[in-house]
Structures are given as C-alpha cells and as structure tokens.
Specification:
single chain; transport; MetI-like fold; membrane; MetI-like; 278 residues; mainly alpha; 12 helices; globular; transmembrane helix
C-alpha cells in the first residue's frame, strides 16, 4: 500500500513538473542578461525595459485586451440569452437547428472557422461595403462566434440545476418575469456568468488561428506578434512578456480563489445560522 502511494505521488509530481517546470525556466531566463536564451549571462532586468519600449508589442497587447474584454462581454450577454432559451423554452420551432448552431463551434476546427469568417467578411465588404478591411471589428465578431458557444454551455448547465420553485414563488407574489430574472435568477447564476466571461476572455486573448484570418496590417493581436517573433527565434524579450502574462494570470487566480473561498465560508455560516434557528 505504501509503495503504491509513493508511485502515485511520484507520477503526480512528474506530471506537475512536466507542466510547470518549463514555465518556471521561462520566468528565470527572462532575467538573463545574455541575448541567447540558452546561455546564462547573469541576472538583469534589461529585457523588461526593452519590452516596455517596444511600441509594436504594446499596441498589440492593448488591442488584444480591448478585443478580449469586448468579446467576453458580448459573448456572456448573448450566451446567457441562448442558455435561457434552451433551458426555459423546451419546445419551439427550430430548436434542433438552434442547438446545433450553438454547439457547432465547440467541435469545428479553428482553421475552418477562421477561413469561413474571412470569406464572410470579404463577401460582406464587396456587397455592403462593411466591414472595411480587416480590423478590430472583424476580430471581435470572429471571437464572439466561437466564444458564445462556451458561455452558453456553462450557463446552461447552471440554469438546468437551478431550483425553478424560487422563480415560481416570486411570480406568485406578484413579481414580473423580468424582475424575477434580474432579482432571483441572475444572482444565482452569477458564478456561471463570471466563469463564462473569464473563459471567453482567455480564449480570445490566447487565439492565434482564427485571428490570423481576420486581422489586417493595422490590427495585429499579441499572440500573432509573439508567434511571428518566435518563428525567427525565441528572444529574452518574449520571455519577459510571457513572465508578465504568467504573473497577471497567477494574481487573477489568487484573487478569484480568495473571493470564492470567502463566498463559500459565508454560505456555510448562513446555512449554520439557519439550522440553528430552525
């Protein structure tokens, strides 16, 4: 039994090392004074300074951030509406087609989605004159197309588990359906909305394949800039950029974990207080 536990822990440790050791090395070598990433030349932060002075990377990062926020917000709004339709309205004409259109981007290869979006934008520009070229607008539309499906699945699963009697009780007391949704339903599914928003944000800011089809010369996202630089060889400047992204993500996960832990503790206290009164 003890040998089995040792083997399991060893396998677990090897798995985590395989996943996270390259990230740790990347962060360490971002402080390398040498331009060669494979040769250690001492500790230095000069690559962070050069990174902050690179206007191309800063512009791409700002564009990616704006696209990710817009995409996450729009996808969460539309995905929530789609989830409500699928859960609350069991039977309606075209439900099968609607469900298929919602879930198709989940299994569709990204290269097919990107090519289809490019052909659509070209046809729309030739027919209507909009969108004019490939810009932030086309990137946002393309990202919403595939992010919407992920949000719908997350919110739909939470709505399906929700106790409908809470909404029925509120309507029995005279509340309108819109007020019931805003006051009762929305706070209950808020964690799913947040999860969907964060998932859409991550998918958008990380996308390369679809973005490469719908970006133009004046609108290049950060992943595409990184990919183009890596093709010519990894530089310590890219290591510095990746280290900053890792730091931001780690801080975000830490903050989110603290918030969830506090909410769970508050829920446990509320349940205990209610049981004590009962």
């Amino acid at each position: 039994m003890k040998n089995r536990a040792i083997a399991l822990y060893s396998a677990l440790g090897f798995g985590y090392a395989f996943l996270y050791l390259p990230i740790v090395l990347l962060v360490i070598y971002s402080f390398n004074a040498s331009r060669l990433v494979t040769v250690w030349g001492g500790v230095s932060t000069k690559w962070y300074g050069e990174l902050l002075a690179d206007e191309k990377i800063l512009d791409a990062a700002w564009l990616s951030l704006k696209v990710a926020v817009l995409n996450a917000t729009i996808s969460t709004f539309l995905g929530t509406l789609a989830a409500v339709v699928l859960v609350r309205f069991r039977r309606f004409a075209g439900r099968t087609l609607f469900t298929g259109m919602i879930t198709a981007p989940l299994v569709m290869p990204e290269i097919i989605t990107g090519l289809a979006m490019l052909l659509l934008f070209v046809a729309m520009e030739q027919t209507f004159g909009w969108p004019a070229g490939r810009s932030m607008t086309t990137i946002v539309i393309a990202h919403v197309t595939f992010s919407l499906s992920f949000v719908t699945v997350v919110v739909q699963s939470r709505l399906a588990q929700m106790d409908v009697s809470l909404e029925e009780a509120a309507m029995d007391l005279g509340a309108r359906p819109v007020k019931v949704f805003l006051v009762i339903t929305l706070p209950i599914i808020a964690p799913a909305l947040l999860a969907g928003w964060l998932l859409s944000f991550t998918l958008s800011i990380d996308d390369v394949v679809i973005s490469s089809f719908v970006t133009g010369p004046g609108s290049t996202t950060l992943p595409i800039v990184i990919f183009s630089k890596v093709r010519l060889g990894v530089s310590p400047e890219i290591n510095a950029l990746a280290s900053i992204v890792v730091a931001i993500v780690s801080i975000g996960i830490l903050i989110f974990g603290i918030i969830v832990q506090r909410q769970e503790a508050e829920r446990v206290r509320s349940l205990k207080t209610a049981s004590d009164r009962g």
